[in-house]
Structures are given as C-alpha cells and as structure tokens.
Write a structure and sequence with these properties.
single chain; alpha+beta; Immunoglobulin-like; Purple Acid Phosphatase, chain A, domain 2; seven-stranded mixed sheet; 7 helices; 30 strands; 14% helix
Length: 485
C-alpha cells in the first residue's frame, strides 16, 4: 500500500536459532561468503518464513524498547522500532506533524528463537528535512505515549552527537545513557557490544585466547536484549541510536555470522557492503559504520566473510565523501581497536593493515572504536606513526596532521582499569600478541566514559570545527580537543 510516507511493508518474521560464544573464544570456521552481502537477514530466511501467528482477540500488552534508526538518508527517512512481550495483532505506527498524526503504517514483525518477545519495525520514507514529527506505536491492547523525532537538516548547521561502545546491562549502563540524554545529541553512535546477551560465558579476559576456530557453544540469554532496550529506550525513542557490531553481537547459532538476533532488533540503513555496514550524512559530516569482525586478527570467527567487499565499499564511500565540497568531516566507527594500550585487548593489526592506508589517503578525521572498556585518545597518526603531540586542549588539522583514533569503550560494562602505556602490544596474524611501544597514546581514562562531539559549520573565514569532549559517566569532562578544517 502506498502512503505519503512510502510503501507499507508486509509483516514477516525470521527463523533464528540460539547459542553463543565467549568474548575470547571464536566460532568454528564455516563458509560465510554466501550470506549477508546484500543487506538481508539470513540469506533470504525472512522472506521464506511463515507469517507470525495471529491469535483471536487481544490482551493488554504494552509496547516496550522503543528506538529510532536513520534510514540511508537521514533527511527523509527514519525507522521506528519497538517490542512486545508476546505476539500482538495490528502493530502500527501513527506519524504526522502533530498529535493528530494522519498517517498509519503497518509494522514488519520479527521473532527470535529463545524469547517470546517479538520486535516490530516501521521504516518511514518521504519525510521532510529538518522537521519534527510526532509518532506513537500501538497494537490491539496497547499503545505508547506520544513521542517526537527530528529529521536531519538540509542546510549545514551546528549539531552534537555522542558515542561509546561496550554498554551491557548495569547501573553504569543506565548512567552513561543518562549522560547521553543530558548532552541532547542529534543521534548516538554506538560502536558495538551492545547488551552482552551471552555474558554467561566464563574465562579470564587477561588470559590469551585459545587456538583459532575453537567451538564453544555457550547459550545466550536473549532476555538481556530486552533489558538493554529498556535502559536505552528513554533516549533512543527521541534520537536515533546508530549501532555497529562488536564481537558480542556474534551469537553462535544465530545465522552463519551470528548477527541474526541483532538484525532482528535493528533495521540499519542498508547501503553498505553487508547487512552490518552502512554510511550516512548529517549536516557537514559523513559517518561510516564498519564491521571490525571482518578484519580482526584477535577474533577469527567472521574474518574475511565479505571477501574484500567491505574494503572496496569503504574506498568508494570515502571517495564520494571527499569529493563533496559541502562535507567537511569524516567519522568512521567500528568495534575493534586500531590503537589502544589497555591490557585486555590493546591494539589489533587487522584494521590497521586493511584500513589505515585508506584513512590516510582520504584524510579521515576521527576513528571511534570500543572493545577495550576505557577511554583513550591518540595523537594524530599518519602512516602508523604520530605526526605531532597533541595534549588535551589542542587544535588539530587532520588534513595535514592525520587521523585521531579514540577508544570509547566505557559505555557501562565493567571497566578495564590497567593500561600498559608507554608500552603495549598489538595482535597480528595468527592471533599472536607482539609487544610494541605506544608513543601515539595521548590520553587514557580507565573508567566508564563516553564522548560528545560538537560539530560546527564553516565560519566567516571558511573554517569548520569538530570539538571532541571526553566525559565521565555523569558528565564531568576528562579532556577536549578540536579538529579544524
């Protein structure tokens, strides 16, 4: 059915299975190139799946876990998602310029094996740029309160975004979410390890990983996803949460990549090299979400699954972004750390080798990683080496001085409170940890934290700025730097 907002999707669900791996254990190697290269879940599993059972009548089932995600064009598209504790009838979103709404769109409903909860998604197209919309979600027996979202502006205007990874379900996770809300961002960029649904695994994170391709089928607890969505929903229902996959999104048994449980809960923009990658633009900044599991030397489970497609897409996307004279900054996010001195995971040579030269070639301004549960910032780096020292308060010119790498893994999971600086190690091919010095490390904060980034358009002199503020959970400032274009 066509509406002023686009075509109403049909309702369908995906068949998934259940199990998991621990963070330092890897899935047994299987053939992965036949799947998830075209932005679909389970290589057609959803399209072939049966329609969700519709029970007679209805009971009171409140909506939960509301969250927003931009479509490929944040000026004109938004996906509204939510969950219900059991199947419901007639799940829809009402949307419009005021509380009269005026347009009702049917939901695409998905189920996940291992939980009775079902997840509803409504992609909304044909929106107007820079506009506030009212929406509510409802179904037979339940409805949410009115909420609003705002599309991206067409003109270059100041905005703020926040970012962290490694959140989990805890008081700390709630505190970092509240800190995000206090920053009032246009959107939040989550760089992986969202909820830790398979935290039941045991093991010492300081102990080296076992041999590559060890299979350890540890069951997940899919209800943890719902607990996490309830923590983030008060903020994610108002501003999009743009997420990337971490190693904890690889849940063994949920599709060949382990991503099916994650992709049943998040509808991503769908314009990347695979279902887990995408890009979007907001004002004068371009954002690229990469899948670090494809290139990691530390964790082998999904290494190489795109067959080089992600690298080619990254180069094409960077080329297009740098060719746009109205786009000043490029931000890249992925989970695995290219540069970090934290004792638990330190650095991974995989993304360094595969993507570092591209970041140099196209003058990427900032790379945001997670994985290590801490905050760390590098001096500007080019060719794998620092170009100059940039202490807190510095102004950096990425076009001539290189890329700043930030570990923002303090999102709420237990902090890793030991750094090896000035020495460190990097995991190379074969999972081998090689000692190295770390003169590139500028600042380290070993507790819960996040970053808030204030982006300004060019001033009268044609200079645009991006001010990166590192914040403790609760909002106290750790440091700040400014990137200048």
């Amino acid at each position: 059915m066509q509406t002023p907002f686009g075509e109403v999707p049909e309702r369908h669900i995906g068949r998934l299975s259940m199990a998991e791996i621990h963070e330092n254990l890897t899935l047994s190697r299987v053939t992965r190139r036949s799947i998830l290269k075209a932005g679909v879940i389970g290589a057609g599993a959803i399209a072939a799946a049966p329609v969700l059972w519709q029970r007679p009548g209805f009971a009171a089932v409140p909506p939960a876990g509301r969250h927003l995600v931009y479509g490929a064009d944040p000026q004109r598209s938004m996906t509204v998602s939510w969950s219900t504790a059991e199947p419901v009838q007639n799940a829809v979103v009402d949307v419009g310029l005021d509380t009269n709404y005026g347009t009702t769109l049917a939901a695409d409903t998905r189920a996940v094996v291992g939980t009775p909860t079902v997840y509803h998604h409504v992609p909304i197209a044909g929106l107007q740029h820079g506009t506030t919309y009212h929406y509510r979600v409802r179904h037979n027996g339940g409805a949410s309160v009115d909420e609003t979202f705002r599309t991206a502006p067409s003109a270059i205007a100041p905005f703020t975004f926040t970012a962290f990874g490694d959140q989990g379900v805890s008081d700390g996770a709630a505190e970092t979410t509240q800190t995000v809300a206090a920053a009032n961002p246009a959107f939040h960029f989550h760089v992986g390890d969202l909820c830790y649904a398979f935290r039941t695994g045991t093991g010492n994170p300081l102990k080296p990983a076992p041999p590559i391709d060890v299979l350890v089928p540890i069951l997940t607890d899919q209800s943890v996803w719902d607990s996490w969505l309830e923590i983030v929903s008060p903020q994610a229902a108002r501003a999009p949460w743009m997420t990337t996959v971490g190693n904890h999104e690889m849940e063994y048994g949920y599709g060949e990549l382990g991503y099916d449980a994650y992709l049943s809960r998040f509808v991503l923009p769908g314009n990347g090299a695979s279902a887990s990658t995408y890009s979007f633009r907001y004002a004068n900044a371009g954002f690229i979400a990469l899948d670090g599991n494809d290139v990691s030397y530390e964790l082998s489970a999904n290494r190489g699954y795109t067959g080089g497609d992600q690298d080619a897409w990254l180069k094409e996307t960077l080329t297009a972004m740098r060719a746009d004279p109205t786009l000043d900054f490029i931000v890249v996010g992925y989970h695995n750390c290219s540069y970090c001195t934290n004792v638990v995971h330190a650095s991974d040579a995989g993304p360094r080798e595969r993507w570092g030269a591209l970041f140099d070639q196209f003058s990427v301004d900032v790379v945001i990683n997670g994985h290590n549960h801490c905050y760390e910032r590098t001096h500007p780096i080019r060719g794998g080496k620092l170009t100059r020292k940039a202490p807190s308060g510095s102004t950096i010119s990425p076009a001539v001085e290189g890329t700043t790498y930030i570990t923002a893994g303090g999102g709420g999971q237990a902090a890793y409170q030991l750094a090896l600086y000035p020495a460190s190690y990097v995991t190379v091919a074969g999972g081998i940890r090689v000692p190295e010095l770390a003169p590139w490390s500028a600042t380290r904060y070993l507790n819960l934290s996040l970053i808030a980034v204030d982006v300004a358009p060019p001033d009268s002199g044609g200079v645009a700025t991006m001010t990166i503020r590192a914040l403790r959970a609760g909002g106290a400032e750790i440091e700040r730097i400014t990137l200048r274009r």
